[in-house]
Amino acid sequence: MRAISNDKVNSIYSLLRSKKSNSKVAKQVGVSRTTVQKYRSSLKMSGNVNEAGRPSLISQRMVNYTR
């Protein structure tokens, strides 16, 4: 497997952030759809991850006050 240049990786990330489909990104950059999917999933992993579980009934200010 050949390494992809940093320019192509940056292009993939910028196109994915602009809500382009995997197929369109792959055609525009010149890589496979599988490669684009790999970078899309890594982008999701590094994004904001919501905490699981029941939402808090009190504010963060009140939590800090009760400590």
From TrEMBL:
It comes from the Eukaryota. Residues 3-39 form the Resolvase HTH domain. GO terms for molecular function: DNA binding; DNA strand exchange activity. This is Resolvase HTH domain-containing protein. It comes from Rhizopus delemar.
